[in-house]
């Protein structure tokens, strides 16, 4: 008799857990369906670092034809280019720097990497939100990425795509043998909140 009571209790508990799980999943899906855009916007606006770029004198970058290095570099936090990826309808401003304050406005450029036209590694990053790099999964090898700066236009062709851990900095090498553009975003693409994985596309300069 006692075993039957215990069995029924366990069965009822399992059923309650399953029902609660389904309710939770349905609730989360409902929130995502009706408030997805607002959630993405909120996440993209989260910022711990603030940069005041007002009243700064903007000096236009100029490429030095003798050394392939810029004679003037943009102020940290200012826009100096736009990035276009026709395959996924991306046309976004590029800012020098990679703080959260910068990334809420567009695409960030790692201050430890080179600039377009300098002949080295260029590292860009952006949120996986719907209005930035959410559609990265649609990219294919051979797709083009164009970076338009005040001193020239540069077109890169994707030759590789990798899913890496955020700690695998060796997968984003800084080198000067070839001009390579590396653009990454957080993965999974529809993840909400912090994630330890990054999806990287690698593209080499073609014109």
Describe the structure in your own words.
The chain is an alpha+beta fold and 207 residues long. It folds into two domains: 45 residues; 144 residues, Sortase, Chain: A. The chain is 23% helix and 31% strand. The chain has two helices and ten strands. The chain has an eight-stranded mixed barrel. Strands 1-2 form a two-stranded antiparallel ribbon. β4, α2 and β5 form a beta-alpha-beta unit. About 11% of the residues have low confidence.
Radius of gyration: 23 Å
Fraction of residues in H or I helices: 10-25%
**C-alpha geometry:** elongated
- N-to-C series of helices and strands: HEEEEHEEEEEE
The structural domain count equals: 2
Structural class: alpha+beta
The portion of residues forming beta strands comes to 25-35%
Give start-end ranges of low-pLDDT stretches: 37-58
Number of strands: 10
Whole-number average pLDDT?
80
Q: Specify the biggest β-sheet.
A: 8 strands, mixed, barrel
- What is the name of the CATH class of the largest domain? Mainly Beta
Kindly report the spatial arrangement of strands forming the biggest sheet: 3-4-5-6-9-10-8-7
Give the terminus-to-terminus CA distance.
Answer: 82 Å
CATH-wise, what's the superfamily of the largest domain? Answer: Sortase
CATH topology (level 3) name of the largest domain: Sortase, Chain: A
Topology:
Elements lengths: L1 H44 L16 E2 L6 E3 L6 E7 L4 E7 L3 H4 L3 E3 L11 E5 L18 E6 L2 E14 L14 E8 L9 E9 L2
Parallel strand pairs: 4-5, 6-9
Antiparallel strand pairs: 1-2, 3-4, 3-7, 5-6, 7-8, 8-10, 9-10
